[in-house]
Fold each of these.
Amino acid sequence: MLATPYPPAHRLDLVEEIHGVPVADPYRWLEDPADPDTKEWLAAQEARYEEHAADFCGRERFRRRAGELHRTGFAGPPSWHGERAFFMRQSEHQEYMVLYVTGADGAERALLDPHALDPAGRTVIDSWQPSADGRLLAYQLSAGGTEESSLFVLDVETGELLDGPIDRTRYSPVAWLADGSAFYYVRRHATGKAVHLHRLGSDPERDPLVLGAGRDATTHYRLNVTGGGRWLTVAASLGTAPGNDLWLADLSAAPPHAPELRVVQEGVDAHTALRVGPDGRAYLMTDRDAPRGRIVTAELSDLRYESWRDLVPEDERAVLSDFVFLDGTLLVARTRHTVSELTRHDARTGQVLGPVPLPGIGTAASLSARPEGGPQAWFVYTDDVTPVSVWRYDERDGRTTPWAAAGRARPPEVVSRLVEFASKDGTTVRMRVLAPPGGGRPRPCILSGYGGFGRSMAPGFSAQALAWVEAGGVYAIAQLRGGGEEGEQWHRAGMGAGKQNSFDDFHAAAETLIAGGWTTPDQLAIVGGSNGGLLVGAALTQRPELYAAAVCSAPLLDMVRYENSGLGPAWRAEYGSAADPREFAWLYGYSPYHRVRAGVAYPATLLTVSDADTRVDPAHARKMCAALQWGTVSVDDTIPVLLRVEHGTGHGNRAAAHAVDLIADTLSFCATYTGLAMD
């Protein structure tokens, strides 16, 4: 690679005093993508990236192998409505997931196919919800990666479009009335979001308001009609806050447009969800006074907290994740250090009736069953070498059998180990380490993690991890505080004032890999996206000597101004707000953009963004790129700082081809700067 200077980026003499602290922001101008200077700088960065990427080690080999592994397809569990089952599937030849439906005769057909809706490949299915009898389907589409959904309704039998579009319905749940004449949904307004009732064919601008007036603009709602269509539950949380308010309404007691919402939980810092069981009792899954989760019951006539009775008590070592009703039993899902287990329980007493056999040691999720109960339940299963497939459990014979597999894969041989280590403060942390058989010398290694929003890094089939290990590397996934691997306390230990714990855990994971002979600092790359991109940004600015390479995708990096764009305001409960002096100190203390210093040997860094990302503003990566290019002592191409921009895509669902390209570029960049020898 030829040594070429970085594209010039002028530094503003911009210093603001925030709560008495001078805060420099020399690349504020890069926040405006329409500014001519930004456009010129960005074009130069893209050209520079393409020049480098052409020489990345093993790029085409990784693209080919990642494509084979990623394109194994996907199958989702059935959602039963009347005699119809609805499910998502993606074959190895399709770019996006397609919604299928089966009738009473078991024959299946594609009901909603984004490839047919938009041959240009810019439209995706964001969500869908059939009516209780399966006659109608409400669904949401967005285009170009924006996630700005519009809502439609079609007739399942004929495919006729009956209603829509209803705009401003991003992330809106849909809860149908039992007769399919109307549904509850959430719509965004200038002052925030609100719950409305929409009757088919009516003007959405006249939809009656059910809930939302006067609530915080970041309020997030969850809606459900349960108990055979009689009961409406509404949950509301501030953005992504782990606690929620919860109401229940008897739809037989008042008009649907004015349900009498009765408080179940309000002003409580805990997460609770309610379902009405086949026996007419309330079943609540909650972490209230049980950070690993429990299932409680109560009579619908008395939902006071004092009346709740434990049915499935908290397990001190396993985290409750889901449950479904079968005939007289509950099927309960838990994870133990992220590994799934399913058990059967008596629905009246909670007594354990026995384990449910699983296909392996991995992840069983997305439980589903028929609304009326029955002897069968479905779930998706995956592990480190098994693509996602759907399995069916039948309690009549106690067997678990395959129900749907999307495709075949030829995964490499992999040795998977769960490694425990002590973090900076002595807390025991775990990571899963994938390596080629035989062990041996220290190898180039990728360390990844997330550590936020209660999300668990559970075992799962990863084209990125498998392609790397097959090429001779080690791939490690750290289970950091801030995630949900050990319950809600684990999450809260890595959010807000405790966010530094996530980064300390990550550094300790790297040190463990090095001390254990898995790798060396010159062979260690770190990779993360979104909140994981923040993790990588913090790691490379706090401990630059520990890492040889870093890939930071769709990242949050300017934590002083993250609330000003994208979905930032919804994440204040997770990170804090710069408007609060105490919380500003947390944010500024680790904000990667503000921690860049001149004359530091930063690792080779690749920042990747999508230009239509409406969750995390690409400006974070632009500003960080300019700061690192200014600060690093490697001012030529030997240890570069690069910016990769993907056009016409967003933060979430993307075409398979785009996903494979990103994997190939990530792995070949890491291979180049960790010295992975490609045979």
Amino acid sequence: MSGFVKLGLFVLAIITNVSIVFASDEINLKSIKRLNKFIESVSVDSLGGQKADVNIFVPTHLKWAQVTVDFTITDTVWQDDWRIELTPIFKPDFHWSPHLTPTSEHIIAQHVFRAPAMIMADKSQQVIVIPDLSVLNNHQGPDWYMDLDAVENKLTLGMSKSAVKEHVLFVKKDGAAYPPGKVRLGFYILLNDSKNELFNPWKQALDFLWNHWGHEAYEQSDKTILSPYVKDTYNWAFNTWKESVPQVFELEGKTVGAPTFIVNVTQSPNYPGLVNEREFRSIWNQAWFSSLRSAQGLFRYARRTENEELMGYAQLTKELALSFPQKNGFFYGLIATEMERKEIDGEYYHRSTGWDTYYWGNSDRNPIVRDARLAPFHILDMSYTAWLMLNWYDELEDDKRLLEYAKNYAEALINIQDSDGFFPAWLSTDDLKPYEVLEQSPETSMSVTFLLKLYELDQDERYLNAALKAMDAVIEDVIMDGRWEDFETYWSCSTYGQNDLVGKRVERNNMYKQNTLSMYWTAEALLDAYNATGKKDYRKYGQRTLDELLMAQAIWQPPFIYVHAFGGFGVMNADAEWNDSRQSLFAELIIRYGLELGERQYIQRGLAALRASFLMMYSPYNEKTKEQWELRWPFFGEEDYGFMMENYGHGGQTDGQGLGIGEFTIYDWGNGAAAEAYNRIVDHYGKKFILEN
């Protein structure tokens, strides 16, 4: 760093390689005093040997400062890294950033700037740094990045090329070039010393981001009717891709079925080659991929449109769910077929051997064994499926088999609750003993939601007591610690830290590896606990948890994302997705909080998430996305309308030529999930609510 600025009472002059100008509609003296309560020093790099022009503006309310850093380049400058570092004047004990940077080599690349912010706080004050997205939107030079170093007490913004190292963390890369002209980087420093607001460290950042960029993006977003996307979903699944998607078969004398877990582009009727199935053919009832959830959406749509054929498919899936065998109340999470490696004309293809070779299993996304046949029972998946059964029974059909199946599971569940209130994550399928890994995790929150729903229907106090004991345990041991660890955090595609980080913070960031799913389950459980008891603390902790979740929602349309992205969600602080399918789960919960708290921002965020749930669909209604699909898969045509990847930019890289577009559709974690969310929200609030808010 060649420029160093000590923010103090009398520094208003040109310092080594840095020109500082304070601007304010109050007296400069007061502005500087206010900043000096939070920021000890600012260190600014030169660029190509040139000094920076730094402008600091503090408005009359003194709640934030706007900083712009300018260079005027006459000849192209090659400089691998440029940065500005801020050092708080206090020693924070709370740190938050949207992505992990476990070493000084790592950065928070602009690829994950969905709602970018860095936060440091103690019990009496808080500093938040937010990149100026208006400046970034017009930036022509190297990519921006951020970095939070809790050990050195530094907040950094910079410019550099980046590369993906782990899945998915980012590191700096050599070769950044600055063309002649104006180079500008801008950011805001949010200042907060109101003790009443420090309980929720994200609310100030969320409001600022929404008021500066999110609300305008919402007003400019497409609010057209979503029902054509839903129609395309079901036409794709049960008509044009009927040879690949719906699975109908006999199980112990009963006809059952559901859409298959996953299909890829080789199964398109327009694909010029032979089918090569991506994964084992299966149907899941899991917290992630849930055929029973998707079937509820199909049921609602078929009922509304009086479509007997689609209603028949929904009923087949309900019957399949009720056919999953229970072992002392616990039950499996998937049914699958055997697979074979088949040779055709010298090439090998992955194919199913048919439903006559079925077996029961559980999710292979677990820490015990990556084989669905041998995988352990997952409490989260069972609680989620049993909760869906209760919702079907309560809202769709008075089928008491659903209630009895769920109650049978509930009796087993409450008997394995530990003394602190937690439910374990995984059980051995042999002796039903719990595994130690994640034995006290926020996955417990899903069981809270299930037990509260069962209490609502059954009025058995045991279910309420077990639920509230578990809820209190999550509040005490998870929420305030930010320990959002669940099955996806370590045992899906982002495996960083699975061997040495579970239950531990990344020291340099003072943060856990965190996943948004467990935030969602917990925010939902807390709102349900509040509704069951009227205790406002549950609602308070629920809003705090929801706000942490909302920091993963895109509040703008970046120029480096080549599909519409506003309103969509990311996954975790060590992965790179935009528009991930989880937004279809989150949408109604965000709306519910908005209605409960009387905050229109939440209602609009929830509706933005609902609309974003369809943004990855290959459809004539999604012009930008359709173009990207056809660049990646030129054989796509009208028969493929409705095909939808679960997310965008998963690998941490995008371009305008289709990079970032995937190759598969998971019906239950994509188009079917989006359609279910829409149909559920229409039934709960009406089409007018969606269109007019």
Amino acid sequence: MTNSKGVVQKGEEWKFSADKLVVENDSEYLQAYGNVTLRSGKNYIQADFARFYQATKWIYLRGNVKAQVKGDFYDAAEAEFDLNNMVGWLKKGRVFVAKPHVIFEGDFIEKHNGASYSFKDVKVTACEGDNPLWSFESGEGDITINGYARLWHSKFNIKGVPVMYTPYMELPVARERQSGVLTPEVGTSDRLGGNINIPYYWAINDEMDMTVYGQYLTKRGFRPGVDFRHAGDADTKGQWRGDWLYDGKAYDNTADADNAFQNDGMIRPNHNRWWVRSKFNGYLGSPEWQTIFDLDIVSDQDYLREYRSGLNGYESTREDFLEQFGRDIATVDATTRTSTALVARSWDNYAISGLAQYNDNLLYRNGNRPASDDPTLQKLPQVNAYAFKNNFFGTPLEWQGEFQGDYFWREYGTTGGRFDIRPELSMPVRAGGITFIPRAAFRATSYLVESFQNASADASKDSSQTRFMADAGISAVTDFYRVFDFEGAPDVTKENIGKSSWTRMKHNIVPRLEYSWVQDESKSQTKLPYFDSRDRISEQNDIVFSLTNVFDRSKGTVVLGEDGQATMENSYLEFLRIRMEQGYDIDEENRSIELSKYEKRPFSDFMAEFIVTPHDYVELSSRTWVSPYLGDVTEHENILKLFHDSYGEVLLGYDYLRKIDEYKRQQDTDMQIVKYGLKAYLPYGVAVGGTFRADLNNDRDLEKTVTLGWNHQCFLLEFVASKTTVDERYSVNFNLFNMGQF
């Protein structure tokens, strides 16, 4: 027969059932036989036999003991538990902690208050099966979930075969982030030698953490690094990274340096080498005053090229910054590194910002060129004010404007201040379904020059100078569309749940014609100081026509609604965008100089752009420019990406720039860069990948990288081989899942 009775665990009732239930010793305890089951919500305990002491809420279990308590699973031959707080012990027991995925089993396991255990002769692993792929065996130890597994006299086994012994070790078994040593990085490089990088992660508090890197390179020395991150509130976060190396290798002469770095003509005699970089988003006093700070300072022009890969290398830094802040850093071989501090605030109609920017030119470091000859421009500071487009005193006119004030400094060259203001008036008019927007603007610029050092011979030496320029234009744009309805949408029935089809397609056509004119002040501008491109504004007198076609689709999918009935769910996707554009330069048509060398070519290249996303796993972007005079392509930008979470991805890219010599533009050489990328997820957790980049015109491979990985249920093993124009590297990455720190 089956009897049931309720027992209480801190206010939660356990439902008790068994094939046979016997009350013993004046109800001090009861004994249950056969299919013993206790349930409380999602928690349960099962056994062949149980003895329950009603006064202490202690239960003894024997025979096929199985339990699930708060998501963790237990198997044992015998066990005892206090149902008030689930402390107790297991004999010949096995515990599976779901989060993290950790299994430990032993002859005797004692469970203490909270999620902590102590044991004798235990095996710890994250792998399933009687003979796990890897495991740690320990004579004794203890485990605290959200803490560590501490093992004494432990062995590391691969398929049951001991391969390493240690008298003591700690393994993290945390459901949450915690401090600990991360998985080491091991590899080798022709240039740097053998490499081992052991990172330590410090979970400082809920708002801060830090990773400290200890990297040793057999040919270069010890390279420590640090990565500090913080997020004080929803409006504040920052990441600060730095590393340093006393390099055993230097390039004191151009012969050695050119051989190492593709004849760039630069030496690198310094042994002290470092890179400091950061991104910060925050505010000044109030969240309305947004603050951005970017830092990028490096010791020499070669550092990032040599330490491009790895846990604390350039590529890792760039990926982190793009993912966390959406802001990039200069390319790995850029010789100018930029650091910026920005404070900005906006209102409904206005905005202001203050900026300080320092550009570090590596060409003038380490004895390459004299620092006193460095012409690199610094903005210390720049102030901007903007008036957003708005009605002009209640009239049909609209106005907008911008102001910029700069103080420019440099070690060698012209220095001083510049104040530039440009208000603009426009008036949208709609007639016959077309919107016409005529506009007119006026620019006033004032200069206060401190030094004319290195100024051109044509430049005026007056400390106070001004410039006045006008520009105008008109644009005409319209937009018309048609919606196409498709038949054959699945009926909204439970039998059709999961079925889908296109229900509608919308085709937008947007033609645009724009005329732009900028006053020709080329002669008078040559007398002005030169700080940046705003000081030499080119004349303009051209017409540009573009035609954009946008295709959107609506797809209906039959899904199960919250009320248990079938319903239609619609999704929308812009699956195709086609834009064509061409311009006509009136000034080029009227040009009367250098006609013997350069014939007139007023028509710009015809540009065609295609952006295709027919599915969630296909993405094609292509832009091509064709010269109407050469009858050939002058530029290509193409990239095709096919990707799927279950199968991998394929990437194909091709960039082309043609050699060209025209009055308005010159390109010295042809350039063709191809890129192929592959990542494939194969059966049994095997993943293969590769990246190939080549400069076809110079017949030079830029990068060849191959990866082979095995993503097992309880570990990741990855081999990486990479050859670039600078180095050849090989590395092995090994991570025990859920035991990534030890």
